[in-house]
Amino acid sequence: MPDNTRxxxxxxxxxxxxxxYDVQPxxxxxxxxxxxxxxxxxxxxxxxxxxxxxxxxxxxxRQRFEASDGLKIRAQVAELIDVPAEAVALTRNASDxxxxxxxNYNRLQPGEQVLICDLEYDTVKxxxxxxxxxxxxxxxxxxxxxxxxxxxxxTTYRDAFERxxxxxxxxxxHVTHRTGLVMPVQAIAAAAREHGVDVxxxxxxxxxQLEFDLEELGIAFAAYNLHKWVGAPLTLGFLYxxxxxxSDIDPDMGEMHFPITDIRARTPYSTPNIPALxxxxxVLEEHWAMGGAAAKGMRxxxxxxxxxxxxxxxxxxxxxxxxxxxxxxxxTSMRFAAHNDQQLMVEQLLNDYxxxxxxxxxxxxxxxxxxxPGLTTTAADMAQLITALTELS
Length: 393
Known about the structure:
Number of domains: 2
Domain Aminotransferase class V: 71-368
Mean pLDDT: 96
Keywords: Lyase, Pyridoxal phosphate
Strand content: 5-15%
CATH architecture of the largest domain: 3-Layer(aba) Sandwich
Order of helices and strands: HHEHHEHEHEHEHEHEEHHEEHEEEH
Organism: Pseudomonas moorei
CATH superfamily of the largest domain: Type I PLP-dependent aspartate aminotransferase-like (Major domain)
Pfam family, one: Aminotran_5
Number of helices: 13
GO molecular function: lyase activity
Low-confidence stretches: none
Shape: globular
């Protein structure tokens, strides 16, 4: 097993991987959280698969993909989170999976309550509010105080469970897209179980940069992206349902293409992006060759800490993501304390320093600038960010 801590600092080692990606000349991309790059070899494989499906059309799809090749790929995806293939259904992305889980959760009764927080993805918030309109339940919305800590996050949820005894379902985001905060999922899920509350986990940003065990976390329902940190083409994700909890999620809108005992009935039946799916075996091979989530996560954390440690010493810079190793990953947010409009500062970082970042709002802590290094990011890129923050602070 390679020493990932040592490797994370080895610029020449990571350059060998970065050289496998084609990067367009232009700004330094510090917004790698939107979606990840495919390696050059993955792009070439994807193109070959597009041509294959275009040539063979439904002959290959009906004769081989649906009967065997697609099932093998699904099993490989399940291995990413170390669960049986029967616990996984492929989707276009995490949002599709989360919407399916939320709208088809069948254990709610009118008058009961569901829980969301300020850090949830807007699509998840919308889906939970949809439940309120169509199932007669009440949506409870909580905010996390800033700065967050392991204990404060857990206490906020414990207080909500005590205050709202009719809670039956909650959304929980593993890595929040607004600030990069990593939620203490295991502790929160354990507290939820004590109060009879089910958790639907948004793992969109977690897969590929965090190591986790769903059984250890105590999670029965989750959805993930394959196009962020795993390196797959866009339009690929999946949902997970613990086999013993499958009956708690109804077939999607009466889906009948699969038996009621098949998790694939929990998603809309449609023609998937077959060329992208056929590319997944190579994507997963490269993911594991790079060291998987352990190596990727360590590298991203190292790059994150380069600029965060410097930013803590600068006046006028607020780093909004905690430094507790349990609560951060490569994604971290900050703000210029003396400026009301963070979008103007995003534009100044781009125009004056050639640094591409993104502004995020919606968190109780206020608007922020999200900084997300990627696998092609270098320590020199982080040094350029530090220079920009120093001068702008």
